[in-house]
Amino acid sequence: MGMTARVLAVDAGNSKTDVAVVADDGTVLATARGGGFRPPVVGVETAVDALGDAVGRAFAAAGVESADHVSACLANADFPVEEEQLAAALHARAWGTSVEVRNDTFAILRAGITEPRGVAVVCGAGINCVGMRPDGRTARFPALGRISGDWGGGWGLAEEALWHAARAEDGRGEETELVRTLPAHFGYATMLALIEALHLEEVEPVRRHELTPVLFATAADGDPIARALVDRLAEEVVTMATVALTRLDLLEEETPVLLGGGVLAAQHPQLNDGIRDLLAVRAPKAVARVVTASPVLGAALLGLDRVGAEREVHERVRARFEG
Q1: What is the CATH number that goes with domain 113-292?
Q2: What pLDDT score does 322 carry?
Q3: In 3-state terms, what secondary structure has residue 108?
Q4: Beta strand 28-34 pairing with 17-22
């Protein structure tokens, strides 16, 4: 029988995967990085094969063959049925005796708190919110975009900005500086030229998200339409957080509300100040802060929670990722 580690932590997002192997005493034996995790695009088995590459490298570097517990926080694990399907696929790889799969938003939440209690709102390409209590209760949303009631995220903001700019140029909507700043980003003089370029894919569709920072810059310069979109995002973040706090009966006690993902981590003053001001009214006991710790730390801490590790073990892992 080969050597085993205590926890294999996996944080797999749409764009990259991070893996860490943690020993009984909290020493991080090895880490590895892999590509994005997109089961809806490539299928579950192919996606898990890609995880396997990073896991194999981490196990080899750590000098172990498996772990007691696999704590996997995975993008695209949005419904329990998907978590079960992914957990079964991970179990079949025999990387660990027990396996727990959660949505990757939980990794960002757990990375930013000292005990499993709090709420996180993550705004990257999309927007999502989760909450947890030490008794195991959680709050979450499907977070599949407009069909699940979401508004915001980098993709959504870019689309809204384009919509307002298109209407400003052709006379259907109010005047906004976005009519100039959005096309200029890609080297075009008019929205019509940018719309044509997007339609004919002369600008690759994947580059649309580049317009979100342009929207924030235009808002910072005082444009009312751009500022209204940023205010609406602040409203949306606080609405999700307040609903999660309410569901978990945490509104009445001091509770961390963690802000993560590229859009929130960028610390745009209008957005982040707006979130804090609205929270002060709707959830006065909530304590908002931006999470900068690596999400794989959260996956590792969730694994240590599950195996009942001592506090000093948790602290040793945290020191390794935050040090």
Answers
A1: 3.30.420.40
A2: 87
A3: helix
A4: antiparallel
Q: Which residues pair with 259 in a beta bridge?
A: 121, 290
Alpha carbon separation from 305 to 7, 84, 117, 310 (Å, rounded)? 10, 20, 12, 9
**Token reading at 285:** 């006991």
CATH number of 4-111+293-322: 3.30.420.40
- The span from the CA of 297 to the CA of 32, in Å, is 13
Strand order in the sheet with 127-132: 138-140, 127-132, 118-123, 255-260, 286-290
Instruction: Locate the DSSP E strands across the chain.
Output: 4-12, 17-22, 28-34, 66-74, 96-103, 118-123, 127-132, 138-140, 255-260, 286-290
Helix pair angle (178-185, 211-220), 10° resolution:
140
Do the domains spanning 4-111+293-322 and 113-292 agree at the CATH topology level?
Answer: yes
8 Å CB contact between 272 and 162: no
All structural domains of the chain with their residue ranges = 4-111+293-322, 113-292
Burial of 189 from C-beta contacts in 10 A (0-12 / 13-18 / 19+): exposed
Q: Could you tell me which residues come within 8 angstroms of residue 187 by beta carbon, excluding any fewer than 6 positions away?
A: none
Go through 74-99 and write b for each residue having 16 or more CB atoms within 10 A of its CB, e for each that does not: bbbbbeeebbeebbebbeebebbeeb
The pLDDT of residue 78: 92
Separation CA 181–CA 189 (nearest Å): 9
Considering only the C-alpha atoms of the chain, give the largest distance between any 2 of them, rounded to a whole number of Å.
Answer: 73
Q: Are 217 and 196 within 8 A, CB to CB?
A: no
Residue for token digits 């979130």?
275
For the segment 50-103, what is each residue's pLDDT rounded down to a tens digit?
999 999 999 999 999 999 999 999 999 999 999 999 999 999 999 999 999 999
**In the beta sheet, which residues pair with residue 228?**
none
Q: In whole angstroms, what is the distance from residue 136 CA to residue 118 CA?
A: 12
DSSP assigned state of 190: S
Separation CA 252–CA 267 (nearest Å): 27
